[in-house]
Amino acid sequence: MISNILREARIYEELAGQTIPDGDRPAFHLSPRTGWMNDPNGFSFYQGKYHLFYQYYPYTSKWGPMHWGHAVSEDLLHWTHLPAALAPDTLPDRDGCFSGSAVELPDGRQLLMYTGVVSGPKLLDKTSKDTQTQCLAAGDGVDYEKYGGNPVLTAADLPEGGSPFDFRDPKMWREKDGTYRCVVGNRPADGSGQILYYSSEDGFRWKFESVLAENKNRFGLMWECPDFFELDEKYVLLTSPQDMLPSGFEYHNGNGTLCLIGDFDGKTFQEEHDQSIDYGIDFYAPQTVLAPDGRRIMIAWMQNWDTLSIASLKAPWFGQMSVPRELSIRNGRLYQWPVRELEALRSNPVFYDNVTFEGELTMVGVQGRKVDVTITLRPGDPQHIYKKFAVWFGQNEAYHTAVSFRPYESVLKIDRKFSGSRRAIIHQRRCQVPQSGGCITFRMILDRFSVEIFVNDGAQTLSATMYTEQAADGFKFFADGKVSVDVEKYDLDADRE
Ligand code: FRU
Which of 57, 86, 99, 257 has most ligand 1 atoms within 8 Å of its beta carbon, as the pocket-test mutant? Predict the structure, then answer.
């Protein structure tokens, strides 16, 4: 029953995937079987396993006509690639199967909802307008059959002024009463973004309910990849705005991420608080799953459209997912913490307590590119708060990535200028972190080609990729002024039982 286009992709990915040695990929972050990966799709728990699909073009390390790649895991860290799930092979999705989501149907099948793309004729300026509709496919966890009634949401289901060319990324879920809902990103007449809310009795016939939230040109323009859920007695709307303008330390230029926290009256969302989801360089299009134990877990594409040139296109794969993160809300703020399953990957603990120093320091046993390192800082001299602390990691003579903290400004900075990039793109980002008197803790998760920093219990996170040789595995500490530091370090190995 599968199309030639999908069959070819499956044959190709199996052969090409085998040529990539495990050591050339992240160990516990999902990377594409071969070729290109962007957004996480269909993040779900189905038949005893987490399923994660992704925007996928198997044939080169560049974006192309979108397929859905597929992987499964029992612990969100050891991933097994499965055959590609969707290919652009029917009329409503002939130019791409864009982002979407998954739920389980009462008959035991898994239902995928995705955006079908059909390109219009090439215009004089060589661009074309892509019509976007929402489509379905149902399957058994490996093979999926596109629904004969596709598309199920079209221009006819848009509110007045909604653009049929920017209408994408359905996030669907099942309510307690067994009915279905989804949110979809759209561009209204004001040219910015809005999130549309739809309902369905059976998952197949959908009905427009309301405009859930409106950007009104405040946070970037178009809002991509929405997700909407209840968490800690609040409602959370996640979205990834395109074309952002910066705002203080909160939002940066380009493709950003936005978390809105508020209430929901069944039709519209009442915003109370806004924040960035991640303050680093590489993080976009997050999607969540509700785990069987009630945790709300988020994963994102650990990359940004504006920094694609960070990696060499000669590599046989491009794109990786973030570490899955448990979400919570405290005092109106989104907190993120690496899934607790990560602790089972820890080995070789190294602890240092209260090491007071000034200048430069290395610590025996603190090194590696697959590590979990927690650093706690306080002034080494209670009368004088230090001026600056920095840690270099992924470090050798040629390379390093740096995190630095200036207590007088309360600013934490990530800097990957010296992480192998040969392009003049953004290499630094700063984040304001509430702290008092130079006391701050941050946890760093490294996995061969990335670092994710969780500040003070996860009130802020900063994620960045670093494509340098694995021999660059040193850690070095610097202090301008006296610092007292605790370090807790573990190796992380996804190959361990
Ligand atoms: C976000 C995005 C989505 C779209 C997909 C296409 O990164 O632009 O809006 O569905 O990527 O690959």
Answer: 99
Q: What is the pTM of this model?
A: 0.97
What is the tens place of the pLDDT at every residue in 334-382? 999 999 999 999 999 999 999 999 999 999 999 999 999 999 999 999 8
pLDDT at residue 497 in the model? 39
Give residue 313's identity as a one-letter amino acid code: L
Asked if pLDDT for residue 128 goes beyond 90, the answer is no
pLDDT tier at 495, thresholds 50, 70, 90: low
Whether 282 is a known active-site residue: answer: no
Burial class (CB in 10 A: 0-12, 13-18, 19+), 439: middle
Location of structure tokens 């190995």: 493
User: Is there a cis peptide before residue 151, judged by omega within 30 degrees of 0?
Assistant: yes
257 alpha carbon to ligand 1 midpoint, in Å?
13
CA of 131 to the centre of ligand 1 (A): 14
> Residue 53, exposed/middle/buried by CB under 10 A (0-12, 13-18, 19+)?
buried
Rounded Cα gap, residues 432 and 465, in angstroms: 21
Joined together, the tokens standing for residue 446 give: 């490294």
> Where does ligand 1 bind, in terms of residues with CB under 6 Å?
38-39, 55, 66, 98-99, 115, 168-169, 224-225, 284-285
Atom 6, ligand 1: residue with shortest CA distance? 98
Which two tokens mark 292? 């069987």
Q: Which two tokens stand for residue 339?
A: 């899934």
**Cα–Cα distance for residue pair 57/10, rounded to 1 Å:** 11
